[in-house]
Amino acid sequence: MDTSELQLRYGCNPHQSPARIFSRSGTLPITVLNGKPGYINLLDALNSWQLVAELKDSLHLPAAASFKHVSPAGAAVGIPLTREMKKCYFVDDMELSQLASAYARARGADRLSSFGDWAALSDIVDVSTANLLKREVSDGVIAPGFEPEALEILRNKKKGSYAVIQIDASYRPPETEERDVYGVVFQQRRNDAPLDANMFSNVITEKKELPEDAVRDLTVAQIALKYTQSNSVCFAFGGQVIGVGAGQQSRIHCTRLAASKADRWFLRQHPRVIGLAFKEGIGRPARDNAIDQFLEDHLTPAEQFVWQENFTEQPERFSYEEKREWLSLMQGVSLASDAFFPFRDNIDRAQQSGVGFIIQPGGSVRDDAVIEACNEYGMVMAMSGIRLFHH
Q1: CA distance linking residue 249 with residue 379, whole number of Å
Q2: Domain 193-267+328-383: assigned CATH number
Q3: Which of 42, 130, 156, 309 has the most CB atoms around it within 10 Å of its CB?
Q4: Fold matches, 5-167 and 273-317
Q5: Digit-coded pLDDT (tens) for 166-193
Q6: Collapsing DSSP states into helix, strand and coil, what is residue 51?
């Protein structure tokens, strides 16, 4: 059996055939244990694996990521969930290992975007994590290994077609990477910039203190951005991503998108949302959609009808004032940006979503205005000097 290449059904789209992945020297670092992963699956797998491996190496905790279209919908380390968080993530009926907790957090950051995700796990997959994967709509998983019973659980998912990939955790790629675009070969050094404690050595705001939890969350956000399509901004809290703004052409749109997702994440924890009474038989994806529509400010008549059909009794919608009152409780959020902030509007929007700690490369001609905005809000901001564009 040729272990240096893997034939695929097609590339990004069904008409892009033939397609394959291959190693220029030696064997592939992955083994397909089940299913037939596709071109995009494998892009997600190899990018998400780098993210969780780096998170594990940096924070010394099990790590997980939920990937869609070569960007993380969520990423997290294995910190236990509160009872309220378990209800928000629909895992209050499960006993969760550290690794399973990491994936529940990664999946829970943006459950709508994580629908049909690719999962990455830093550690050997245990039964607890396999049972969590089994119940979610997911295309596949990559990990350094699988307990026998866990592998059997996953092999039975999706009528036996669930993609399961084992990666050689000791594999290290060449220092130089290449890609072809329109027949032209691009070559560069891999992005192996270390994201370590040195990132936080240049705190340039009046307020200087970075608590341990903030350092952890800023690290989560930075490492997530390293594998997110640029431009990108990431919000993190409690050891997990809570909002990603990816692939936008304007940085303020990155910030607005990430902030709106972070707001939605926090609103899901409101007692009124946790207490929503769903009709029997309504699955988790339908519940996610219904909650999203419940929290939406404006619904079309068709959306209103579909939304109402999910509940045993019609819940009272939030007013704008009620939302703002709840969101005002969200404080101490961390924010990372993959490149400098060109204007202070990003800081103004971040403040509305509870951001207290920021890391960004710096280097804008308007750095002074951005620093001034952080000082006005009592934020702590570090400039890492490391740009993290990813394309």
Answers
A1: 26
A2: 3.40.140.20
A3: 130
A4: no
A5: 999 999 999 999 999 999 999 999 999 9
A6: helix
**3-state DSSP assignment of residue 65:** strand
For the segment 372-391, the average pLDDT, to the nearest whole number, is: 96
Please indicate whether residue 56 is annotated as part of the active site. no
Q: For residue 280, with 0-12 CB atoms within 10 Å meaning exposed, 13-18 middle and 19 or more buried, which class applies?
A: exposed
Of the candidates 42, 303, 31, the residue with the CA atom closest to the CA atom of residue 168: 31
Mean pLDDT confidence for 219-228: 97
Domain ranges of the chain: 5-167, 193-267+328-383, 273-317
Closest CA to 221 of 204, 208, 209, 233: 233
Q: What is the pTM of this model?
A: 0.94
Pairwise CA distance, residues 115 & 113, whole Å: 5
What residue spans of the chain are helical by DSSP H? 39-59, 83-88, 98-108, 127-135, 148-155, 212-226, 251-267, 271-274, 284-295, 301-308, 320-327, 345-351, 367-377
Asked if 355 contacts 379 with a C-beta cutoff of 8 angstroms, the reply is yes
Tokens, residue 293: 């529509």
Catalytic residue among 69, 207, 253, 323: 69
Q: Six-digit token pair at 376?
A: 């006005």
Say which residue the tokens 């629909």 belong to: 90
The CATH-assigned architecture of domain 5-167 is: 3-Layer(aba) Sandwich (3.40)
Specify whether the CB–CB gap between 186 and 178 falls below 8 A. yes
Active site residue 86: no
> Tell me, which fold does domain 273-317 have in CATH?
Helix Hairpins (1.10.287)
Is 69 one of the annotated active-site residues of the chain?
yes
Among the options 41, 47, 68, 390, which is catalytic?
Answer: 68
Considering 34, 231, 310, 346, which one is annotated as catalytic? 231
Identify the burial level of 334 via C-beta atoms within 10 angstroms of its C-beta, where 0-12 means exposed, 13-18 middle and 19 or more buried. buried
Residues 37/58, Cβ–Cβ less than 8 Å: no
Active site residue 391: yes
